[in-house]
Amino acid sequence: MPQGTLYIVSAPSGAGKSSLINALLRKFNLDDSLRLSISHTTREPRPNEVNHESYHFVSIPEFEELIARDAFLEYANVFGNYYGTSKEIINEWLSQGKDVFFDIDWQGARNIKAKMPDAIKIFILPPSLSELQRRLISRGQDSPEVISKRMAAAMSEISHYDEYDYVIINDNFDESLLQLRSIILSTRCKLDRIQENQQQLFADMKRQAKEYEEAWLPCASALSAALAAAKQDAAAKDAAAASTASAAQADTSAADASTAPEATEAAEASSTETATENPQA
Fold first, then answer.
1. According to the annotation, is 206 in a ligand binding site?
2. Which of 197, 222, 238 is the last residue of a domain?
3. Most buried one in 71, 113, 122, 188, CB count within 10 A?
4. Residue 83 falls inside a structural domain
């Protein structure tokens, strides 16, 4: 089974990474090839968040028990709340050929990249810090103190953008979504990914090329030799025809030359006879 690709998407809070990932899964996952890693967290659910869909919401003791069991690919404490990613489900999806998305901060991204170096990292930037602050305020979910902390954390998060493979500036949502999708499509067209996912196709093409070479090259060599011989024969015939034409022309010229004196004598005799018959002329 072809291996899927792991995508790490990071951004400061309010840049729109979760909205972009969710839109990607909603609009461009018709073949069911995309998965979003659902993290475990100890924070309280926000409005409209659903357990086991948005996050796996667990208590602090439950989370720490999972840490003790080494169940997480990575985990971190952010603003006093734990966040972590399960190893088992991620490896299962990748082995099924699914592309898996991680919605995590730069620290988690660095930890996962160290364990899974083939992962592709994408950073989402806001068009400006003032726009980022406006988005955080417009959510109406956090107090001014929390927003202030989030802006400070955003500065730290943004400072790590150059550790990523791709950067998307989310000024226009639709354009940013298409850019995100383009990254996925271009990755799927990479040579190593195509070779891995289409092993049977390449094996069949290689085998068929060898069979063609073994079956048809001898015939091609014989045909080439026959064509060369025919070309030589045609050239010989052309040369013979040219020689015959040249000889015929030479014979004609010689015959004309031999009859020329006789014609002259006949003409002179005719002229003399005419003069004798007409003495007064």
1. no
2. 197
3. 122
4. yes
Do 72 and 164 belong together in one domain?
A: yes
- Tell me, yes or no, whether 79 and 11 share the same domain: yes
Q: Which of 197, 214, 235 corresponds to the end of one domain? A: 197
User: Could you tell me the CA-to-CA distances from 263 to 258, 260, 266, 272 in Å, in that order?
Assistant: 10, 5, 5, 15
Same domain, 113 and 181: yes
| CA-based nearest residue to 73, from 6, 120, 22, 24 | 6
What pLDDT is attached to residue 60?
96
pTM attached to this predicted model: 0.66
Asked if 12 and 157 count as a contact pair (C-beta separation under 8 A), the reply is yes
- Grouped pLDDT means (10 residues each) for the chain, 281 residues: 89 91 94 92 91 92 95 88 91 93 90 93 94 87 86 92 96 96 91 70 75 72 78 83 75 64 59 57 46
Tokens describing residue 74: 């990575």
Does the annotation place 221 within a ligand binding site?
Answer: no
To the question of whether residue 11 is assigned a binding role by annotation, the answer is yes
- 16 labeled binding residue: yes
* In-domain check, residue 226: yes
Whether 80 has a binding-site annotation, put simply, is: no
Give dist(CA 192, CA 47) in Å, integer: 43
Tell me, yes or no, whether 88 and 170 share the same domain.
Answer: yes
Regarding whether 160 and 221 lie in a shared domain, the answer is no
DSSP 209: H
